[in-house]
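User: Hey, quick favor. My workstation is busy. Could you predict this chain's structure for me?
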Amino acid sequence: MVDIVPLSSYPSYISLLPSIQTCNITNLPENYFLKYYLYHALSWPQLSFVAVVRPKHNSPKNEYPKVVGYVLAKMEEEPTDGIAHGHITSLSVMRTHRRLGIAERLMKMSQRAMAESHRAEYVSLHVRVSNNAALRLYRDTLGFEIEKIEAKYYADGEDAYAMRMDLRPLWMKEDRKENNDGRKQASNTASRKTESDANADSAANDDGHPDEGEEVGEMGKNGGEMEKKEKERVFRVKVGRALGVGDLVERNETVR
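Assistant: No problem, here it is.
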């Protein structure tokens, strides 16, 4: 199984550089000194990716994975057009692992890292005018456009296509994601506040006093019956004329 990971994901990723250099020398005529790989690895480790085959279970514990592909990328430090953009320095996949979509995945991951980490507006590269396989990948699959032809760009005198691809659509995807996350967070905060307010309201009774517990006994269930009976106590009083009254009349008086 082939994994594609950032070069910086390995604690001692500098140790992978000789394997990357071997992959380059095996497949490409454009070769670099080891210090050039080191320059990319130390300056922009998050922009370069490697395709690796993990060691088998019975392999030595500290054995490094086998590098079967890589993309070496950087940001232009002093762009002539004044626009922040990235550049693909080198892309290579071993012949044993071609036609598996590895090169496309390497390129896409590097492009996304440029857009997210450095806000690059576009990415550029050079390719030989005779390299039809690479042209199909860059132009037809990834969407690069030919900007111009640079005469005798390579050491052997062959011309190169200068190509570029707009990375700003990747900004918008990232911005939309951030906006959606912000809206979700605000919605969750509002929901928690509403729930908290509802709980506070339910903790108070109709006359504004806090709830002091469940009703106790029949008087509690009748909701203030004791107070009502206190007001309606019955008194027996004698009424009538002061003299010559033979009978007594009883009546109820309610205390007002």
